[in-house]
Amino acid sequence: MSNNYIFSSESVGEGHPDKVCDTISDAILDACLAQDKKSRVACETFVKSNVVVIGGEITTKAKFDYNEVVREAIRSIGYVNDDDVFHADHVFINNYLTTQSTDIAQGVDAKAAKGKATDEQGAGDQGLMFGYACDETDELMPAPVMYAHRVGRELTRIRKSGKAKWLRPDAKSQCSVRYENGKPVEVTSVVVSTQHTDGVTHKQIHDFIVKNVIQKVLPKKLLNKNTQYLINPTGRFVVGGPQGDAGLTGRKIIVDTYGGMGRHGGGAFSGKDPSKVDRSAAYMGRYVAKNVVAAGLATKCEVQFAYAIGYPDPVSVTVDTFGTGTVSEAKITEAVEKVFSFKPADIVKQLKLLRPIFSATTNYGHFGKVDDTKTITWERTDKAAALKRAVKS
């Protein structure tokens, strides 16, 4: 990619059908962990019209009403209007959850098993994970996806406050940013599609969102007379949510991560307990990359590592600073491996993941949330000083 380009990223609101599914799956995960921190959870959700299907594998000592957890998750999103086909109190719920395979469990459990190489906790699956950070925003995230999240988050805040009673839960946002010499200099376009009640005019929606959402949350210096605002460009968005489209857990992995600016290993996050490295190791990758940038060792950093199922150590660790490193990538990689442990059990311990915290991650990205680093521990930059020391040793 040249140093001068336009890059676009999107976000989706809590009421988007796929995010409804992520929200339900993470709510079930948290309900399990709240009672049993050793719960093994892989919960998938499918929604369409007035039907919710939950399935997957859960092994837990937790006892709770799965249907009520599902309904409360839907209620928290805002699907409670009398004219909603998809309504928290009226959906039909089908439960197809079973226990985890014992063959998988023995690979993850921290004990010896026939044919298993070690008695340590192993990775819950083979796979590769990426972490990414850059200095484009205060959150050390790529600007396009962070700006798209800001728009979506503010739209939801306004809807839930009741300030715009015509807003409904389903929504998407997209921001295109122009770069010069690799730095963001202008927002060239903002796209917002939001579900609304019948009767409100397109002009009302357009003017309200431009003034009260976009121009409020995006950097004023990046908006100008050339910025294009495309608000509900189809002209009408009354039928939305699971009534208008089917939803499935894990279909918004680029929204969940770096908006396409950083690579993705392919594994989804929501509904998975931290023994699944798809989730926990991706969080670890973000933690590592963010601390590298915070330490001043690079302005852009991507970390990749990979696992074999049942084996504790990663089979590879690679750092790429895209030519922005202040020291060699070999030195940074050596420092990273010295400061951090990538074993699944150590990741869980370092990031304090055996807690019911995952509903806080579901919407508006799993990365870049810096308001509560007691919960979102992978957004801390507490290892930056140790990395600085390690590259000098």
User: How are helices and strands ordered from N to C?
Assistant: EHEEHEHEHEEHEHEHHEEHHH
- What is the overall silhouette? flat
β-strand number: 11
Please estimate the helix content.
Answer: 25-40%
Low-confidence spans = none
Output mean pLDDT: 93
What class would the helix/strand composition place it in? alpha+beta
- Summarize the main sheet: 4 strands, mixed
Q: How far apart lie the N and C ends?
A: 34 Å
Could you state the oligomeric state of the chains shown? single chain
Q: What's the helix count?
A: 11
Order of strands side by side in the largest beta sheet? 1-6-7-8
Give a verbal description of the structure:
There is one protein chain. Helix 4 packs across helix 5. It is flat and about 65 Å long. The strands form three sheets. It has a four-stranded mixed sheet with strand order 1-6-7-8. It has a four-stranded mixed sheet with strand order 4-3-2-9. The longest helix is centred in the N-terminal third of the chain and has 19 residues. Strand 2 and strand 3 form a beta hairpin. The chain is built from eleven helices and eleven strands. The two termini are 34 Å apart. The chain is α+β, with helices and mostly antiparallel strands and 393 residues long.
